[in-house]
Specification:
The protein has 319 residues and is α/β, with parallel strands linked by helices. It has 3 domains: 113 residues, Arc Repressor Mutant, subunit A (Orthogonal Bundle); 102 residues, D-Maltodextrin-Binding Protein, domain 2 (3-Layer(aba) Sandwich); 87 residues, Periplasmic binding protein-like II (D-Maltodextrin-Binding Protein, domain 2, 3-Layer(aba) Sandwich), CATH 3.40.190. The protein has 11 helices and 12 strands.
């Protein structure tokens, strides 16, 4: 059994131990507690017996045994009605807490079983800033080796289309400001944009310094393309974009070959690859946060839910 599963089982055992210890230091049978709760909820022994399909004498006997074990009366009995004593009200509150703990434990165990044999399809963009998706997925696989993982790569628009259609469970990529409302997202990391210039190109301190240059960018309709258009408009010019390509790596290849300049995610610009000159623009050009995204209104499977939680935890651990 994997270490993580063993730890989970210990956690469930602790939940059970807590649930029973808050009622009394000694063991008491669940049947007695359920019978006591039925009398309290039904307002009397007769109706509780009918509800539980037991003889009234059996119901009375179980409640008396519970009162004897606790050493306090739980009900005030009259010929007309049965009401809880202060001790009874306290015990009923603890009973409800026990039931909530037991229900949570059952849910956890059910989810664990489903996670151990589930499947998760993840869509991811090529640029994820400092967040390492391979390391996150590797540690998730170590934790849940029985889960089948599938990974698809595309631009964010294509990934969101697949997510909306149910082709993927989760998407990891930039969270643009115009993210459609049918999607919910959780931040994983921050990314920043830099100016990418050919080796030997004169330094540039702002995007406006490059107004007369040819640009290399992702295709029209992509997030990066729109960011370039918006930033150029703020700088007072319309960029000339003769080179469009489908990946940050190919943008870098074209810039390194001297075919143009670009704005590029810092993680892509500083990763191993062909040489380019990298400059931080002033003012800064904002890049969307990297996030894990799922479809609202479509419940995640236990395996996908566990994967989403793991990605968030991994991002927090990476800082």
């Amino acid at each position: 059994m994997p270490t993580s599963v063993t730890a989970f089982v210990f956690q469930v055992q602790e939940r059970f131990a807590y649930a029973f210890s808050v009622v009394h230091d000694q063991w008491m049978e669940l049947r007695q507690l359920e019978t006591f709760a039925a009398v309290a909820r039904q307002g009397g022994f007769t109706r509780a017996a009918e509800h539980l399909r037991l003889a009234q004498s059996a119901v009375s006997a179980q409640v008396r045994a519970l009162e004897a074990e606790l050493g306090v009366p739980l009900f005030t009995r009259t010929t007309r009605r049965v009401t809880l004593t202060e001790a009874g009200e306290l015990l009923l509150s603890r009973h409800d807490r026990i039931q909530a703990e037991l229900a949570a434990a059952r849910t956890d165990l059910t989810d664990l079983t489903a996670v151990l044999r589930g499947r998760v399809t993840i869509g991811a963009t090529a640029v994820l800033g400092p967040f390492s998706l391979p390391r996150a997925l590797a540690s998730f696989h170590d934790r849940y080796p029985g889960v089948d993982l599938a990974l698809r790569s595309d631009l964010i628009a294509g990934l969101l289309t697949a997510l909306d259609a149910g082709g993927t469970d989760l998407v990891v990529g930039p969270r643009h400001a115009d993210l459609p409302t049918q999607f919910s997202s959780r931040r994983l990391a921050e990314e920043h944009l830099v100016l990418a210039l050919p080796p030997g190109h004169p330094p540039a301190t702002s995007l406006s310094d490059l107004r007369d240059e040819s640009f290399v960018c992702l295709p029209a309709g992509s997030g990066l393309h729109q960011i370039l258009l918006d930033a150029s408009r703020r700088a007072g010019f319309v960029p000339h974009i003769p080179f469009e390509t489908h990946s940050a790596a190919s943008i870098r290849d074209l810039v390194s070959a001297g075919l143009g300049v670009a704005i590029l995610a810092r993680s892509a610009a500083t990763a191993p690859g062909p040489p380019i000159a990298v400059h931080t623009p002033q003012p800064a050009i904002p890049h969307p946060s990297i996030a894990v995204i799922h479809r609202r209104g479509r419940p995640l499977s236990p395996a996908a839910r566990a994967c989403r939680r793991h990605l968030i935890e991994h991002a927090q651990a990476e800082g």
